[in-house]
Amino acid sequence: MKKIFIINGGQKFAHSGGQFNKTVQDWTTEFLSKNNDYEIKTTHIEDEIDLQKEVEKFVWADVIIYHTPVWWFQIPNLFKKYIDDVFTQG
């Protein structure tokens, strides 16, 4: 069984409500859930994060999927913070 970790890197900012990335994450989760060969865990960077549990998700996963917008050729600041915090924790 493949273990897939999906991260929603979208966030609310100015006129953007972050809905597109949520929709794409929901579609991906729904599609993969139809196949019993996949076990799925998800994270949304705007949710309250337990850093140790996030580290465990990375260690657990065979595949990591990032759904994120690109703002001015970079990932959103909250997603960057998430990566920094999780990788420093682990």
Describe this structure in words.
The protein is of the alpha/beta class and 90 residues long. It has a single domain (2-89), classed as 3-Layer(aba) Sandwich (Rossmann fold). It is 42% helix and 21% strand. The chain has helices at residues 19-33, 51-60, 77-89; strands at 2-8, 38-44, 63-67. A three-stranded parallel β-sheet has the order 2-1-3, sandwiched between helices. It is globular and about 40 Å long. The two termini are 25 Å apart.
Distance between the termini: 25 Å
Can you count the helices? 3
Q: Order of strands across the widest beta sheet? A: 2-1-3
What is the radius of gyration? 13 Å
Largest sheet geometry: 3 strands, parallel
Uncertain residue segments: none
The averaged pLDDT comes out at 91
Structural class: alpha/beta
Query: Which CATH C-level class is it?
Result: Alpha Beta
CATH topology: Rossmann fold
- The global form is globular
CATH architecture: 3-Layer(aba) Sandwich
Please report the total strand number as a whole number: 3
**What fraction of the residues are assigned to beta strands by DSSP?**
15-25%
Number of domains: 1
List the secondary-structure elements in sequence, H or E.
EHEHEH
How helix-rich are the residues, as a percent range? 40-55%
Q: CATH superfamily, called what?
A: Flavodoxin domain
